[in-house]
Structure formats: C-alpha cells, structure tokens
Amino acid sequence: MYDIVIIGAGVVGTAVARELSKYQLRITVLEKNNEIACGATKANSGIVYNGHTARPDKLKGRLTLQGRQMFEALCRELDVAFKPIDMLIVGFDDEDGYAHDEILCPSRIVTTTVPIEGGVCKRLPVRSSEPLPKEWIGEWMRLVKELRVKAPVRVGEILIVGILGTGTDVISSKGVAQDQ
User: Fold this and answer.
1) Is the Cα dihedral 41, 44, 46, 48 positive or negative?
2) Of 35, 40, 60, 116, whose CB is crowded by the most CB atoms within 10 A?
C-alpha cells in the first residue's frame, strides 16, 4: 500500500517524487514506457521559459517566475549544468511591428476542435480569424468549447461572429460534408 502514486516518470513526475521523498511517505511512480522521460519530456526542446511575457500580477506569471528560480536551484543542487539564456526579440526597422507587439501585447491565432453533428467526421477544426491577445485565449477557449456545429460546413465558414467583442470571428479550418 502506498500513500502516493505518481503516474508518469517524465520530468514533472520524477521531480514531484523527488520532492515528496523528503517526507515520511510511501511513494511509487508508474510509467507506461520501458524507460523514464520517454513521453512529452523526451520531445521537449530543453528551453526553460524565462518569463519575458509573464505578468507578475497573475498566478501564471508568478508561478512561471517561481518555477524558473526553482529550476535553477535544482540544477545547482544536483550539479547539473544550466546556462540561462535570455530572449532577444529583434525588430529591424520601425515597420517591424512583430517585435514591438510580442513584447507589449503578444497575441496568437487560436486553434481547437469542436463536435460536429451529422458530418463524415466527429470533430471540426476551428480557429480565430485574427490573432487574439494572449490574456483572452482562456475565455475564447471556454466559449468555443460550448460550440456545437451541424454539417455540412465550408472551410472558412464563420461560426461565431466577433467573439468577445474583439471583431475576431471563429471560423472553420476544414470543410466537412454531411454524412450520407
């Protein structure tokens, strides 16, 4: 009998197990692969986010910055080489708005899938018609998650007009024919 069972022996699962091992607990880690760190951890690029767009007044921002500091401390404790590298976003001239926007108001095209009724497939890929400010993405996803679509649907068809009052629509990324 164990006090705690951790599922997944990637970087997160093993770090949690290591931290919990400091207490009087019976812990086991379960991993579906033959070796540790073979899932998402193996596919990771090894970049530790520096928090350049993290807002310290938001929980995500505070946790991002705290996690970065904890990572550096863990590397020192385990004698693992870690070289922090800051990010450089370059704008070549006044016309290059990307660098300016990425620092001051980062935004993204958002994609997901929604259920589709009566179609030849069960899910319909959708996206925002324009980039959304990053702080609105969670609310966008919450609203789009409630969307139900009936086939047929044309590629580029507007499914929600002006979501969140932004002037940005939710559009289909694929055409789906009606099931015969």
Assistant:
1) negative
2) 116
Distance CA 25, CA 132 (A): 45
Peptide bond before residue 152 is cis, with ω within 30 degrees of 0: yes
pLDDT digits (tens, 9 = 90+) for 115-149: 999 998 889 999 999 999 888 999 999 999 999 99
Which pLDDT tens digit goes with each residue over 79-128?
A: 988 887 766 667 777 677 777 777 777 888 899 999 999 998 889 999 99
Rounded to whole angstroms, how far apart are CA atoms 64 and 59?
A: 8
DSSP tag of 87? -
Residue 55 token pair: 């807002």
Distance CA 149, CA 161 (A): 14
Task: Return the CATH superfamily for domain 107-172.
Answer: CPE0013-like (3.10.530.10)
Delimit the domains of the chain by residue range: 1-44, 46-87, 107-172
Q: How far is CA 12 from CA 40, 63, 72, 92, 111, in A?
A: 10, 15, 15, 38, 26
- Report the alpha-carbon distance of residue 105 to residue 5 in Å, rounded: 41
Q: Tell the residue number behind the tokens 């997944």, with chain if given.
A: 8
Structure tokens at 52: 């350049």
